[in-house]
Amino acid sequence: MPVKTFRGKLAHDSQDTIRLGTNNGLTGYQITLFDMMPVAPGAQSNESVVKVFKRSQSTIDGTIDFDDNALLAAGFLAENGDARFHVNPTVVFDNEIFNQDIYITYFDVDGANGEVNYYLELKQVKLDLNEATVATLKDMRGSN
């Protein structure tokens, strides 16, 4: 199956929606790559936390909780603009298959309120009716 790519730029304390839902839910997706990069490398300090969720988030924060069943991926990127210190992003993602919209959030723990770029690759997976039903219920309920 083909790979779909998404990229964007997020401001501090914001959320993007990636529209994936279909009428029949027979197309599933799995994260194959999740990466991030500062908008202006070396220009300012930041400690970026970018997360991918199965459901829209009412609160955006810098806490990464792997016990959260709605969390599909999380990444951390640190950069000190003055010293030109840059830490390669640490990214962790789940191999879970989902078939509904997903949501990407960004929070700057450093408080610099900067921006961050994200890049996401999703592998399309053909689902049968039973798999589609299970994926949809898991997305709605937030259970594993």
Low-pLDDT ranges: none
H and E order? EEEEEEEEH
Strand-pairing-aware structural class: mainly beta
Domains counted in the coordinates: how many?
1
Q: Your description of this structure?
A:
The radius of gyration is 16 Å and the shape is elongated. The chain is mainly beta and 144 residues long. The protein has a single domain, classed as Jelly Rolls, CATH 2.60.120. It contains 1 helix and 8 strands. It has a 5-stranded antiparallel sheet with strand order 2-7-4-5-6, with no helix packed on it. Strands 1-8-3 form a 3-stranded antiparallel sheet, with no helix packed on it. The chain starts with a strand and ends with a helix. A hairpin with a 4-residue loop joins strand 5 and strand 6.
Write a compact overview of the structure shown.
This protein has one helix at residues 129-141; strands spanning 3-11, 14-18, 27-38, 46-53, 71-80, 85-93, 102-108, 115-126.
SSE layout:
Layout: E1 3-11, E2 14-18, E3 27-38, E4 46-53, E5 71-80, E6 85-93, E7 102-108, E8 115-126, H1 129-141
Antiparallel strand pairs: 1-8, 2-7, 3-8, 4-5, 4-7, 5-6
Features:
single chain; 144 residues; mainly beta; Jelly Rolls; five-stranded antiparallel beta sheet; three-stranded antiparallel beta sheet; elongated
